[in-house]
Amino acid sequence: MPTTIQWFGGAGSPEIQPAASGGLNTVGFFGASFGFSIRVSEFNNTTFRTNANGTTDGAQLPNLRFANISGAFVGPSVTAEELLNIAQTETTLKVTLTTDNPIKTQNTNFRAFDRVSINNDPSGVTIRAAEMRKHSPVVRGSGNTNWTVVAGSGAVLNMFDQTTAASTVHDWYVGLTATPNSIGEKTDIGFYFETEFL
Asked: Mind listing the pLDDT tens digit for each residue in 35-48?
């Protein structure tokens, strides 16, 4: 089997298709429900898998809404949770790397861009990201304590090295939240993930 990288909703489904598929290959941020706008200076109330133009409802993803630099509202909750207390299954994305032979990983990062160049900022929107590492409901997580604004090559989310044990499957859980910088539809937003094998 070739080395693959797959993107899923944080709970493990649905799969977000590869960018070149032309199908349900996009993470869409919305207001109260699919197709509803987010007001300027407010944050997403819902998140969906959708197509590049955000016109097809391809299933709801776990939603995180920015509360403060170290917290988020999970799903429809109106009570903020500290990022370290958010379960991996409640994150927006699960990125899975599968290889033939056991490997370790390092220098992993995640960024948002404008779909033209991975070095450019996303257009018209501010995206915040955090890596969640909470494996157990009774144990505090060990991921990011604060949100990071991700914007092209100038502001990336540096993720934890996975060097403790070699494995053929590696998972990363990424929470995302978005706010528009101006009125109007925002479709020039993409996400990029990279890592090194050891």
From this structure: 999 999 999 999 99
**Pair 89, 11: CB distance under 8 Å:** yes
Report in angstroms the alpha-carbon separations of 168 from 30, 145, 197. 35, 28, 11
φ, ψ of residue 101 to 5 degrees: the values are -110, 150
pLDDT at 198: 86
Tell me how crowded residue 175 is: count the other CB atoms within 10 A of its CB.
27
Q: What is the mean pLDDT of residues 145-156?
A: 97
Indicate the DSSP class of residue 24.
Answer: S
pLDDT recorded at residue 18: 84
Mean per-residue pLDDT, 124-135: 94
Given the structure tokens 């479709």, which residue do they identify?
Answer: 187
pLDDT in tens, 88-117: 999 999 999 999 999 999 999 999 999 999
Query: What does the angle CA 108 – CA 50 – CA 168 come to, to the nearest 5 degrees?
Result: 35
Nearest to 34 by CA among 22, 16, 51, 15: 51
Residue 152 CB neighbour total at 10 angstroms: 17
* CA-CA-CA-CA dihedral for 83, 87, 92, 96, to nearest 10: 120
**Cis-peptide, bond into residue 122, ω within 30° of zero:** no
Contact 27, 51 (CB under 8 A): no
